[in-house]
Amino acid sequence: MIAPGHAEPARRRGLADEVADRLREGIFAGVYEPGRQLREVELSAALDVSRGPVREALRLLEREGLVRCSWHRGATVTTLSPADIVELDSLRGALEELAVREAVRNATDDDLAAVAAAAEAMRRAPDPREVARHDIAFHDAVFAASHHRRLVEAWQGIRNQVHLFLLTRIARGTEGYLDAVPDEHRDLAALLRARDAAAALPRFAEHRARAFDVLTAEG
Question: Structure pTM?
């Protein structure tokens, strides 16, 4: 029991967190594709840990939306449904609109430099999956530039699902992707640097719509 006036001691980052990091990285790298079953016995052998930390790691990833667990199939990497795609796109849009407005008003020069650097890193990415990583880093930088703590926390709650959203978009086809997407982000960074919310907001919306249209196209 904790005595009144005394805080609980800090807990060290545990083995389950490390396992979750490995599995999350495997999902983003394409080692574990959407729909892939994640069996505790196989993962514990591959990662050289007991099943306990694997089970806890899968629960952590389930809370992030990267894994789904059911009694008859066990754990599987999340496959985004049409409803998931619509909900993620609409929620991301609402959060990002506020982030752009706040970043235009509150961003420091260093913040804007970080946004521009993330956009530039996309131009050097060797493959679409790496572009997606830098894409997420770009939007991390935009939210950080807002200096709105609760908004950043809300973004953190969906960012890994948005990463999965981008990877799902890539799986639909990558023609022109390596050329177009870095250029789009460079233009978005320039609009933020100009602190032009009226121009930036529709361009961010157009950027989101391109990925959404790919994911919702028939056939």
Answer: 0.90
